[in-house]
Amino acid sequence: MRLSASPRRASGGVDAVELDAPRAFARWLAANRRALGDVLEHGTWLDRDDVNALLDLSIPGIDELLGILEIARLSESDYERIVIDTAPTGHTLRLLAAPDTVAAVAEILDALQEQHRIIRDQLARVGRVEASDRLIAMLAAQARDTAERLRDRRQTTFRWVTLPEAMSLAESEDGVGALEQSGLHVDAIVVNRVLPDGAPCPICDRRRAAERRVVATIRRRLGRGRSVLLVPAQLREPHGQRGLAALGRVMAHGSGLMARRSWRKAEPSAIDHLPSAISHQPWRGAHSAAPESIAAFQRASLLFFGGKGGVGKTTVSAAAALRIAKADKKRRVLLLSTDPAHSLADVFQATVGDTARRLPRGPRNLEVRELDAAHAFAARRVQLEAALDEIAAAFGAGAVSASAGSTPELVKLAPPGIDELFGILSVVDARSAYDLVVVDTAPTGHALRLLEMPDAAREWTQVLMRVLLKYKSLVRPGQLASELVEISKSIRALQALMRDGARTRFIVVTRAAEVPRAETARLLARLRALRLAAPAIVVNALTMSPGRCARCRATAAAERREVSALRRLCRGRCAMIEAPLAAPPPRGARALDEWARRWRQPDSSQGHKGQQRTQREKQEA
Amino acid sequence: MFILDSILIGSLRFVLEKVVAAAEAEMNDDTALRDQLLEAQMQLELGEITEKEFARIERDVLARIREIKRPQQGALTMSPEDKITGVDIESFEPDEER
Ligand SMILES: [Zn+2]
Q1: Do B39 and A472 lie within an 8 Å CB cutoff?
Q2: What is the mean pLDDT of each run of 10 residues along chain A (621 residues)?
Q3: Closest CA relative to residue A442, chosen from A509, A379, A501, A380
Q4: How far is the centre of ligand 1, averaged over its atoms, from the C-alpha of A247 (Å)?
Q5: Residue A587 and residue A519 in one domain
Q6: What CATH number is associated with residue A43?
Q7: Which of A249, A275, A301 is the last residue of a domain?
Q8: Taking CA atoms, what residue in A is nearest to B40?
Q9: Which residue of B has its CA nearest to A462?
Q10: How far apart are the CA of A448 and the nearest CA of chain B, in angstroms?
Q11: Is residue A407 part of a domain?
């Protein structure tokens, strides 16, 4: 069914709503524009036009901020229980920090309003509370109440959903740890898509063994004081009310896998020590397509890899960067992760941090970096405070000064949106030092935010420059002005680079299943709207040689159908790359290298045409 | 000779002081010009002026900055902070005069 922006009945007793943050913000703004505009006009020397230009800017991190305001609003309605499906790990942590950002914003607005309040109350002797005062009080209250409600165990519980994979395990440990540290209680761990028992099969057996080990580790490290629920993998992903209800019953009764003895403890088996089993099949109707040989990957200077959470983006981008670097030792390659929930270190089984470094025994021309946006933000705090002071001065908002102490909160926090902002800044920085930057992005929604960031940042610099020019007789355009000019120039260069399909490409990673496919369709449409070249789809974890195993055969058949549907979606504009299922997934440079050598491209794939198309689109643009 | 030289040095010091004062004043002019250039850069980024218009403004401003700098550089090979005291006159005499 289609969900709307306001709650709609999904089935008896259950309403559902999908938050469309930009639209929700537009609605919120429409209701509060006057009050908010008043505050900004009172607290600065900006006029109504300036203020309106500011209010119409798109705000990085708006998803998280609005998410929090919507949660606040809905929890005041008469629903008995609200179930929130959050964004993948990294951004959920930002969402949960959002009340503090809302509170900081309320504080700034309050400081801006203060001068006006004094004049109004003492000089004009009007003791009247205005809409703007009410707005500020409401924001502050919502931030406070939501923060309290989220941390109150009787009102809020958190269920952590993960996959039985070593990589998800590390992410879960980090995520659950961060939640507990910020005072949120995680009362259950749900392990999804666990392979149930079945007949012997070389692939399924390896998967079961690996999954069992992960589940045992989850119990040991995260299970204390929490329930651990296992949800069996189904041949078809459950959807529709009946499928979902059945899944809900399994979870509610702890039946299914949990009841089985074999899941209660992991028996180490000899199979664990074998290299990962790669589902393999002779090249019938397909040809070998190792990353370095894929036209869509060649001669690019910027390759983004993105897709739905859990499809194996990081594994795919890591293998691609590794093989591309090995194939041409003269090309300096950077693999950069902009997902706040990093997994490059887990994929390479090596230490990876915020400074680019070579992998032990990896190619010398490949460097790897996991962006730590919160750290980058904190490290630039002094500059940010200075910039905010200059902005406040340019706006004539003397009451609001970061270094004077009325906006310290905003600078102290890692506000929502910084991952995308610093993500795009680090891409700009890396451009001069590397021939190719491979970006492992956060799951879909936030990858799109990252790609939209240059446009949003350009708008911001423009509005700020207009204000500086307009009030230049009052405040000399100084450091801020020259920085804005520099930023504006680099953004323009980046925009040109990103819209040049010969240099920048977005590689969509997906799995051959219904839900990831639907998300791939939406992602492709958005990429087209952003004028970004998407010349290839990597279909990951395909069961290529099902053998006699009934489960593998059924899975393979379902996957073939999904691959056909994906190809239709491509409409001849992109190459279809098929990456085989490996059980367990490849870890470490050697395993990644070996695995990516087995990628293939069906002969019918229109990769070549797709490439030409990219060129033509470039010429048209 | 000695008197002539001391007059020369005296006037050199006078000129020097003048130049230092002027340089200070001109530094301010220089700042104003730099602001003007920065404003033009912002206008260019905003699309309020064309590349061509910007190039013209840039040329003008740079020419004026050079003009300010020229006398300063011609007069001084030492820094304005250097004090001229107890000069060894002999060393100032060019070889051909001997
Ligand atoms: Zn099997």
Answers
A1: yes
A2: 66 84 87 92 89 88 83 84 85 82 87 81 68 91 89 89 88 89 89 89 89 93 91 79 79 54 46 58 76 95 94 96 97 95 91 94 95 85 80 76 54 75 88 95 90 91 92 82 89 92 97 92 94 96 86 92 92 91 90 94 60 45 42
A3: A509
A4: 22
A5: yes
A6: 3.40.50.300
A7: A275
A8: A469
A9: B46
A10: 25
A11: no
